[in-house]
């Protein structure tokens, strides 16, 4: 006796969260059954293995049919074939587009191309995430990227509108799309200590301040086919950043800056002497990162530059860390360092400085951890 | 020109890509009714076309309005080649023809193609202007209401129940016409769908005419079936019960009257039945007439069975003369009718006086081509013959009527088994004719019939018993005689006194049969039938005893014929009726007490059985109070041992075999184990596992003994097909396979629905078919309903308190709901159904996190700035802004898809049905030539059934409804050919589209009314003083 056909169709589509998770994780039906057995479901429910097999198959079939709709979540809301309560629809979408930290760290900043897709085998082997799940996550990134690529308006809002994500997930995807578009290097060994959350935080700050959309002028001339507002960095702004060099190139300005900062922080900073000794190096590092952003290639290395000191002389994050500045001291210093510039009479690029430094300061503080 | 049909095509969405080059579609729509066709403009290059057509007007006879479906075809325009069809929508406009039902059909319909399934949706608005037709000889029957529900629909009152109506129409099956060889599968499927739609329209119209003749205005318990007779044609037949219904107009009036069964049940007091000296026998003479040959129509008639438990002895003195009087009265009312049958399974209080037992008749026929479709006399004659037999059986049980009546067929090649069954009963004449017979008689009926046991009292004359049986005095009133067991096809009467809870009981049976042709085959089948009936019956009896119960309700026996086997499946809901005696145990007797180990084995089995009975009694809470025999008084009369032949007048056969199902007079039910078969039987008795704790199941409307339903329901259909290994097929192996199949299916259901515990599977409906030699297909449709374990019988007081609390919070939306209901939806507002269902949706809202709604609202505001959101998105959800305003709206504002509940029951727990919108009767064919690509047979059928549900829901929503009640999947014919990568499936479903309102919301309204009245009177008082 073999079962030729075995189906269960409910007027309200039954979604088993546990099986959905197994399906998303890329397990085959038999693996999923084995995992469910191991989780003790047979003992809890008194079911037989055959029942479990049939149930799992059924759910997998349903998910397979739903997958097509999940590729365009608004379709899931409007379709008539599966009657699913809104809360369940939200859950389906949210879980389908959720990603593994380990996976996203591997592809963050990489071009979402066929080439990268071929490397998924390696990523799967390295992270222990099934290839199927890697593919799903990669395809999700790519799909979202493709849809919002050419769109105007807020990146996170566009994503939310077209994929019906929660706030949190939409912001994460905005970061992924932003990183993929600007191809920031995140894979270097030195950057391994950083989490996706760290990068997503920086991405949000950069989107808010450094992109075309941040200037907020585009809506006034909607027909001009300028770059994508939220996805690309404001080229003009990056060019202008060269002007900041004067802060370290002009010796008087540098000295004045140093003395102002030192005066303000004397007695308030635990690591005052180290700071005083290193001020010029620190300032040079911060300003040089800005000056380098003119070139596309260097933009990609932004995070490497922020963390590493090797490339163009001593940089910021690393030196502080080696001296074990407390986070509070770093914050005090950076605040003072950027505010004091307003008192430098000879320096004319105050607005530019703020646009640069506010974001950079936020990023640096986030990146400053073990 | 009695009617004008108006159709407007608004828009489409999610259309498939028909032009590979542009990834777009140039869609237009053809609207066809009768022979008239209109077309919309071509909407170029869009998957979401906005046709916004003019009103297409069809001027038609109302006869056509009833028969014809509106046919909407969506096509892709192609300049150089033929236009490609995307799919079709058939809309039955019948609901628009009664004054009280829907006024407009408007909404999104799935575009369906028989090869590709659902391909996008189309928004359509349909209206009908009917002119009054005074022609007395008209052929149409517009205005007669149809209900699938097998009880008097809630919010109606039965003035008169007229009785049985039946009709059948036949035609050639397009699939078997010569033209089918040259046309595409799609064309052939569509021809079939259209034909069946036309035939069912015609059938309904003809039945309507009969109802008008009887001066009725409605058909209740309407059951329409298709017989796919293959080469010999297509039969569409229907039965129903003609009634005159009165709408309960004011909500105040129907509130108390239309309690959902849950409430009514609460009031029934617990019973106090006795025990002791119980004897159980079961007597069911089968009588078989093996066939006479009649011209070219070979016909083997009749294994016939009457199930009942009954007895002999002298009649209760006081009952005698009265009964005769009653009988006379009823007789006069019923004898005018050809067939005093009622398809109802639940009745107005007082309608059902006595129940005799199950009567059934089967007949084996050989099909031959229907030569003249206009004169379906052969088929008519076949059914007439069977009904006649049923009628005579009922008479033999001292009953004048048959209730819970149904008919079915099973066809394999050219052999067809026709079956009919029902419950013989004595009815109160009050409902059967215009209220003339009322008066003293009626009063006496009420005096003499104590509530809760009256229907159990035997209707037949004890001195002139048709069968030997055990009778005892009723354990409830002690005045009248009752049988020891009672089998019926109806639902448990609401006033019946039940002990403990009920449970689903199934008897399953397979019998191998040699492959044979024509007459030999028919003879073989009819020879097997009586034995199958006997065994099914024995199994039912054994299982009933094993459960410690004494009555079956909703009994349905299905006999399915295949190439090389016969299958029997009986389902029923067992209960312990307080009025009937306590069932005895089961005793096992060995063949020869020679062998010691054998003895041991027997005693071991005996112990197991006794343990099971004890366990079941505990599980189902069967603990009737003990009553000593003295109180019962009269000695239990000796049962007659003699078995008697029942011969119905319609029989003309000379060979008659006689079968006695009596198990003799023994204190307990004795199973004799004399061979391995019997051993197997006993084993199979014990293999039935009870459902896991927290689960109950029944095949009746509601579960006896459970009354505190909560509002969560889940209707489902599950299908399984198993392939038998063709080697060593024996009856035992077959039985085991079949048993396992059913048991595993049930286990799977319990597992799948475990999140709903505590819950009950209601209206569990199994259908067996044998699509091929070695395939067995079982289809189950049922509904799982949650109930509250802790909240015992809640008093009305707390109910009101609760509703008052709710009143303060929910006022706003509730007040506006009734207004929405009656407001005519305008064409400019294409979403009236979604609006109407908003109430249901808002109930969901509590539970669901609402961020998805918020996003959508947000998205509406953002949309303007972004590039890619073109007009189409905007238009696809025109609900948008309108719903910002009110609080109740957000949940439905965002999903344009309103929730439509489906249930095989006639009610929705925790809700009141406020309006019946019309009957849903749909027939679909789906075919594939890429079975593997669609996920194999399971993927194919899963998708198809989901699509059928979707189409039913869409039609209900378009009528303005939010639920389908009395939903039934009448046919699910699945055929596959994996070698050719092909499969085909036909599904026929029906039900009643309704609008329901949650009870909590109604309560608010009703509690507000009294306060308003009070205020008025108070104000009045002040004025006078």
UniProtKB/TrEMBL annotation, chain A:
Question: What InterPro entries does the database record attribute to this sequence?
Answer: FIBP (IPR008614)
Task: Name the domain of life this protein comes from.
Answer: Eukaryota
Protein name per Swiss-Prot or TrEMBL: Acidic fibroblast growth factor intracellular-binding protein isoform X2
Q: Which organism is it from?
A: Erinaceus europaeus (Western European hedgehog)
Automatic annotation (TrEMBL), chain B:
Q: Name one Pfam family in it.
A: YbjQ_2
Q: Which SMART domains match?
A: C2
Which residues does the annotated region (Disordered) include?
630-660
InterPro entries tied to this protein: C2_C2CD5, C2_dom, C2_domain_sf, C2CD5, C2CD5_C, C2CD5_YbjQ-like_dom, C2CD5_YbjQ-rel_dom
Q: SUPFAM superfamilies annotated for this entry?
A: C2 domain (Calcium/lipid-binding domain, CaLB)
What residue stretches are annotated with the C2 domain? 1-109
Which PANTHER family does the entry link to? C2 DOMAIN-CONTAINING PROTEIN 5
For this entry, the protein name equals C2 domain-containing protein 5 isoform X16
Species the sequence originates in: Erinaceus europaeus
